[in-house]
Here is the input.
Amino acid sequence: MAGFVPGVHLSGAVEWLARSMSEERNHVVVVGAGPAGLMAAEILAQGGARVTVHDAMPSAGRKFLMAGRGGLNLTHSEPLPGFLARYREAMPHLEAAIEAFPPTALRDWSEALGQPTFVGSSGRVFPKTFKASPLLRAWLRRLDSAGVHFALRHRWTGWDEGGRLLFQAPDGLRRVEADANVLALGGASWPRLGSDGTWADILAARGVAISELRPANSGFTVAWSDIFRNRFEGQPLKGVALTIGAHTVRGEAIITRTGIEGGAIYALSAELREALLDAGQATLSVALRPELTIEALTTRLSAQRGKQSFSNFLRKAAQISPVGIGLIQEAAIVSGQPLASLSPSGLACLINAVPVQLTGVAPIDRAISTAGGIPFSELDDNFMLRRLPGTFAAGEMLDWEAPTGGYLLQASFATGAAAGKGVLKWLEARTANSE
Here is the structure.
């Protein structure tokens, strides 16, 4: 079949549907031209449906291209049990979709588009080109050859009284008939790229429960002193361990003008966000030398300081970077306790547990992804909305979150594939019932 997706196999019933639809050509509308929507479109075209993809933006895959600016992290090589655990409480709901289209299938799919992948030192999987644009161009060419049509600059605004999809198009309001539709409109992060979350009100008006959209994989605000902010904005804290409650992550964080962000922060963003929601503030503990025990640090800090400045002493004795020293000094200002008054053991304890008071979550429009959305209780096993038969949902619209590292894109691709297969099954059942 045209547009065959490696790793995604159609059942016998759906293969029968593909043959029957070659005569009837059921029309399926996909709303959203991101990874979830485009994958649903590919599955649907593979199954014989006539597919039109609508998107409010002038071109497809805007946020996908943004994700590839630093090297497109498609998925992760972590063994599947650990991989699935990254989705936390959403794991039971995503497990079947990801097992049906796992990381190995996503890599095969990319290679079939002429974009072979490799596993980086961190276990993350990237195209060898490190870019999203060649992969997206090849994908769009394959969709075009499979007969998928695109209606760009078409903003979805809901349904009319007859059940037709409504789109605000350049030439005015359009009403579109469809036998089924897939909603893949993303979350509410990076609205300028098309994911603005306006769909939430449209679905809520139809009785669909919506969990509040919240920032995920986001930065956090900190009331830095002017001296620290002006000197260290943009500086990385490398090789640190960050802790909130019982959760610890090793990695890197970046000082921003208004707070702190970076990979290790994103990995803890759910815990940090929930702590802030509960108490209005949260204390992040930063270990600047996590590979050293307190005893080892105490021994180093017990050396004679001589005529060195305190900063030079910390830099040489404990190998702490200037931004790390600045962070320690910030903590001393907040506590009102001079660093010079601390014993070597007290200073060692501070170095490996620097308290940073978080005051808030960075705005959702700057977050990498979104938490909240359509609860899985609103969907059946085929990703169809229970209250809206014939309407399916996929991708970041659904109420799940995961850390960066390939987990976000993997679930978007996998749920898109699952929704596409769900549509084909639903159309097959409807056809069988009408005979």
About this structure: Residues 18-23 have pLDDT under 50 and may be disordered. Residues 12-215+366-434 form a domain with the FAD/NAD(P)-binding domain fold (CATH 3.50.50.60).
